[in-house]
């Protein structure tokens, strides 16, 4: 190992991928995650491996994801789209339409996207992974960095770089000494956190009965509570999943059990009596997750996109601080691909200062 040691804050895909690449290059690191689990916005159910966070990647324009799942030997499969789709509106009721086809091939990881995080994390030294560690402040001491966490624990190790694999709005709440510039803080505050305003629902069944009806499982509703529904089957079992159309403010006073009941009623309305009683069902409201969402994230953003996250305003922190979360992923910001792209950019910059460092794949 080299003497350079990097502190990675955030154990979602970006943070775990960064640790995986650094470890492979012989560069010391510590990975800190606020939650009691790794994965961040990647969360798959147990049992079943059905995704409550991101599910899809598109290999025709997300080469890093395609290469990574191949490198890790993870089985993938194409999103099921055979059959008709359903469209629901207050004016027309439920209509059956010719099946929806996405413009690009949508791929999923067998057993859930959580397997990607597990595969990356399995090779890391356990002593370098720290859970339940929420970063509160960072202090620069003669070009070394000292970290303070939520339990007032001061990490004894000193670090040469800080890689923030958390949403920029959360990163902006960390106390920095010396302070970040007002422009840098404003840039972070202006970047919406992808998925932070959303809630996702999954219902698991004994069999994919909708396929027996010639339906793809796709449904689009202006009635709700689910606005968009898709087939979530994998080799482990059968399921439907949907994105809740009620906004975060509207969900605030709803019990999860009540929202689940409304979702089951809707699935019965759309797909028939067989949908009324799933084996089990799950809901995760990302707007209530303090390690994902802030007050500013309660309104859903319509699309992924590039955000202004210039390092020109970081002053004394410019060479030691990197934003590597998905939102820093350029045109792929918000996607899993964006997380990999942001990390690869940091690795490329690091390679210039570490003799013998290997450039990341995809650059």
Protein model, in words:
The protein has 363 residues and is α/β, with parallel strands linked by helices. Helix content is 23%, strand content 23%. The chain has helices at residues 13-24, 63-72, 114-121, 168-171, 182-189, 209-212, 248-251, 256-271, 336-351; strands spanning 5-9, 28-32, 76-78, 84-89, 93-97, 107-109, 129-130, 135-141, 144-149, 161-164, 175-177, 199-205, 215-221, 226-231, 238-244, 280-285, 321-323. Helix 1 (13-24) packs parallel to helix 3 (114-121). The chain is elongated, with a radius of gyration of 21 Å. Mean pLDDT is 92; it is low at 355-363.
Estimate the helix proportion, in percent.
Answer: 10-25%
- Give the tally of β-strands: 17
Number of helices: 9
Sheet having the most strands: 7 strands, mixed
Strand content: 15-25%
Alpha-carbon Rg, integer: 21 Å
Low-confidence stretches: 355-363
Main β-sheet, spatial strand arrangement: 5-4-13-14-15-12-16
Q: Give the overall average pLDDT.
A: 92
Distance between the termini: 24 Å
Order of helices and strands: EHEHEEEEHEEEEHEHEHEEEHHEEH
What form results from the Cα inertia axes? elongated
Class by SSE composition? alpha/beta
């Amino acid at each position: 190992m080299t003497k350079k040691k990097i502190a990675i804050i955030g154990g979602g895909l970006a943070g775990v991928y960064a640790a995986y690449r650094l470890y492979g290059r012989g560069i010391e690191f510590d990975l800190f995650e606020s939650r009691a689990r790794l994965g961040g916005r990647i969360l798959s159910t147990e049992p079943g491996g059905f995704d409550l966070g991101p599910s899809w990647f598109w290999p025709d324009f997300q080469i890093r994801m395609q290469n990574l799942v191949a490198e890790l030997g993870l089985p993938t499969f194409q999103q099921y789209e055979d059959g008709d789709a359903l469209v629901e509106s207050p004016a027309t009721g439920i209509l059956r339409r010719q099946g929806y086809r996405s413009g690009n091939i949508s791929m999923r990881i067998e057993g859930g996207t959580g397997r990607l995080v597990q595969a990356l994390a399995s090779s890391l030294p356990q002593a370098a992974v720290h859970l339940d560690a929420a970063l509160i402040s960072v202090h620069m001491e003669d070009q070394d960095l000292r970290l303070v966490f939520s339990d007032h624990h001061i990490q004894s190790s000193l670090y040469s770089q800080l890689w923030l694999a958390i949403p920029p709005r959360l990163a902006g709440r960390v106390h920095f000494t010396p302070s970040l510039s007002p422009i840098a803080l404003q840039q972070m505050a202006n970047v919406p956190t992808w998925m932070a305003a959303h809630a996702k629902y999954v219902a698991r069944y004994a069999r994919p009965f909708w396929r027996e009806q010639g339906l793809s499982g796709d449904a689009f509703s202006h009635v709700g509570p689910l606005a968009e529904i898709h087939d979530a089957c994998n080799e482990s079992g059968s399921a439907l999943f949907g994105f809740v159309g009620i906004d975060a403010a509207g969900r605030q006073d709803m019990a999860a059990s009540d929202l689940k009941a409304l979702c089951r009623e809707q699935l019965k309305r759309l797909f028939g009596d067989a949908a009324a009683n799933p084996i089990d069902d799950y809901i995760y409201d990302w707007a209530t997750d303090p390690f994902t969402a802030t007050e500013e994230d309660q309104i859903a953003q319509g699309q992924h996109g590039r955000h202004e996250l210039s390092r020109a305003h970081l002053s004394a922190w410019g060479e030691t601080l990197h934003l590597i979360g998905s939102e820093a992923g350029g045109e792929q910001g918000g996607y899993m691909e964006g997380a990999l792209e942001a990390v690869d950019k940091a690795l490329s910059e690091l390679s210039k200062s570490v003799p013998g460092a290997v450039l990341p794949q995809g650059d």
